[in-house]
Amino acid sequence: MRIAVPSAAVAATVLIAVSLFSPTRSAYAQVIAKLKQATSAKFTIESTQPKFTGVAIVKSPNWMRIDFQFPGQAVNVTNNQTHELISYEPNSDRVKVDSIPAASPGFDILQRLQQVDGVHLDGQMNTIADTEIYSVFEGHGKVWVDKNTKLPTRVELTAPTELGGGQMIYRDFEWDVAVDDSIFQIPEGRSIVRSTLLAEPTEAELAAAFRIRQAFSQEPYPEDFFRDEVGLKLGQLAYDLSKNRAENAILQSKQLRDHFAEIGVSVTESQDSTAVQQRIDYLCMKLDQWENRITRTGGWVGTGIRPGESKPLCWWRSATGIRVLDADLTIRESNDPPTTK
Q: Domains in the chain: how many in total?
């Protein structure tokens, strides 16, 4: 799974990566019991890849704030009540608010630690001084627990070598700290810039991205069409680097003018080449998001299929069942995953 690393995206994903396995109930039951009573925590995060340090405050189940300690001192807040990622510089009058998907249960480390019971311990429990150390996550994680409070004081997670081997450290925990809810809200008196780039991609956006492809090419879909960076390939198809901006604007208008409404371009925007290009870029990004989702939950079956045919291109699992996109750009339910014939 690819993860973008701008500061806003880091704030949305850095804690989601932690998944800890628990020891047997007899050794860890008191720790789990204490964790399930906790509602807030403050701690320091250190990451080696990407490299950063930050101070985080979580208030379960909906709020998480990270104050990054690097030039600019960026603040990032995940508000799972409103499905927003709030990012700003303390001395700036501008706030960026991204719509984001609803986080799954356990999106912060407090909730993750509360859910570790029922899973087996990897390795042996060790004891030094007043601390118990648990080896977890198939040897890729460790949890330091204070023997007196039965609460974690440090967590380390090391990614497997094939995933880069980076390390994430959570240290200096303060449990059940007093938290004013206002620190998780959009600061008052600042201009707000809203974006949906990080929001959950919609089915309409998936069909719109394929509409662009079919407007610029009627060639059958190749075997490798739906792969990493499919959005980049779509962008290259819709913008010819051998031509200048004005020439590309003419080409885009010619190819897409009968499909502007289908791809979400209004009549007014269709007269603005910059707005058209921005919409294409946006749909390219959404197609990359769909590639990620479909690769995880479904698959690509469209090799050799021509645009417009009533044959499946790709499928994915949703809350209601299996969904299929056909080359005529209709999306339908299916009882079983489609296959090529």
A: 2
Asked if the structure places residue 168 within a domain, the reply is yes
Phi and psi dihedrals of 9, rounded to 5? -70, -35
Residues 160, 284, single domain; the answer is: no
Evaluate if residue 13 carries a pLDDT over 80. no
- Do 307 and 327 touch, CB atoms closer than 8 A? yes
Straight-line distance from the first to the last Cα atom of the chain, in angstroms, rounded to the nearest whole number: 29
- Position 23 pLDDT exceeds 50: no
Shared domain check, 119 and 34? yes
- pTM, rounded to two decimals: 0.67
Query: Per the domain annotation, does 1 fall within a domain?
Result: no
Condensed to tens digits (0 to 9), the pLDDT of residues 46-60 reads 988 778 899 999 998
Final residue before a domain boundary, out of 166, 195, 224: 195
Domain housing 280? 203-334
Q: Within 10 Å of residue 256's Cβ, how many Cβ atoms?
A: 21
